[in-house]
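Order emerges. One example.
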Amino acid sequence: MNSLSQRRRLGFLSLCLAFFIIMLDTTLIPFLYPLLISDLELGVSEVAAVNNLYLIAYAGTLLLGGRLGDIKDRKKIFSVGLLMVGAGSLLGALSGNYHLILIARFVMGVGAGLITPQSMAFISNMFEPDDRGLAFGIWGAVASIGTGLGPVLAKSVAAFGYWEIAFWVNIPVILLSLILSVVALETTYSDGLLTFRQMSFPIIAGLALMAFVYGIQVLSPGNGFTGLSVIMIVIAFILGAMVIKLRRSGLIAPIVDFSKTDQYPYKAAVFASALLGGSLTAYYLPLSLSFSYVWRFDEITIICLMVFASVVNAIFGVLAGVWSNKWGTRLLIISGLIIFSISCFLFGGLSFIGADEKAFLIIASIIILVLAELGTGIAFGPLANSSMLAVGDEIISEAAAFYNWVRQAFSAIGGVTVAFIVSSALGGRESSDAQSVGFASFVGFTFVGIALLIAAYISRGVKNG
C-alpha cells in the first residue's frame, strides 16, 4: 500500500466511503422504527417498507450496474450512483411525508446497486495482486463498521427525536466521496452499445429479484403466505422463466460470460459468499432474541456489545488482507467460515442459560462474539478477492454484480427462512417465556451453523490468491 500514488489512495478512500454509507443504510432505519411509527403515525408493515424498499432496489439493480460498468465508463456509473444516494438522502431529510420517504429510499437503493459492482471492479483494477488482499480486507472492514454503526447511530438519533438526521448524515459523506471520485478515479473507456441483447438480462433478472425479495419479505411467520406475497413470487418465477426462454433462444446475452472466468473457482466463491450473506442476516435474529428475552441484557449493554463486535470485525478484516498474502485466501475463507459456525453453536448452547448468570453471560458473549467477528472478518474480504481473481478484466463489473446479486438474494432468503424456523420452534409461546425463546434461539443458531459448514465445504474450490 505504501507504493501507491496519492491519487490512488484518494480513489480508494472514495470507494470505501461510498460502500460505508451503503452498508450503514442497511441497518440504520430498522432501529428507527419506533420513532417513525410515532412521528408519522404508521403501522408496523408500513414502516418496514421504508427499509425493505431500499434493500429491494439495491438487490434489483446490481446486475444492471455491473453490465453498465463494463459497457460504459465505470467512473460515470459510480458517480451517478453517488448522486442518486445523495438525492434520495436529501429528499428523505426534507420530506416529512411517508410516501416521499419511500421514494427516497428506493432511489437510494438504486444508487447503491450502481455503486457496489463498480467499487469491487475498481479495487481489482487499482491494486496489484500483492496489495489486493489488503485492499479487499479494508473494504470488508468498512462494510462491517458501517453495518455495526447503523444501530448505534440510530439509537443516538432516536435520543434527539429527529429521524431526519438519519438521512442528513449521508450527505456530507456522499459529497466527499463524489469529490474524491472526480479527482482520483480513472476514467474507463469502452465502445460498448446499450443493445437489447446486452441489457435485457440484467433488467429482467433485476425485476425478478425485486419481485421475489419483496414477496418473501412480506411473508408473515405467524400467518404463512399472504395473497400479495404469492402474487409477487409468481411474478418473479414468470420473469425468471422468460429470462431462461430468451437466453436459450439466443436473444439475450448471458448474465456473466462464464467462458471468461475460471468457472468452478468463481462459482464456488459466489455461492460460499451467498451462504455467508444469508447466514449473517439469519444470525442476528436468534442473537437479538437471546440478548433481549433470554439473557435480558439492558439496552446499553447490547449497544456496547455490538460496537465491540464491529471494532473486532474491522480489525480482523484488515488483518485478513495481510494474512492472505502469507497463507492464501482459501485457508482464511475456510477457517473463517468454520470459526463463525463454531461461534453459532456456542451461542446456541448458551441460549439455554437463564438471565440469573448475568456476569457469566456477558463474559461468554464477549468471547463468542470475538470468535464470530474473527470468522466473518477473515472470510468476507478474501471471498470477494477470490471471486475477482477468477474473472477477466473485460467482465469484472458484471462478475462483481453477479457476486453481490446472489449474496443479496440469499440474504433475504436466509432472513425469512430463519424467521420461520425460529417462529415454529417458539410454537406461539410468548416472548416473556425465556426458556421457550432460548430453545427457539438454539434452533436458529444451529441452522446458521450448519449453513456455514456447507459454505466452508464449498470454499475448498475457490481460487487461492
The chain has a mean pLDDT of 85. The two ends are 17 Å apart (CA to CA).
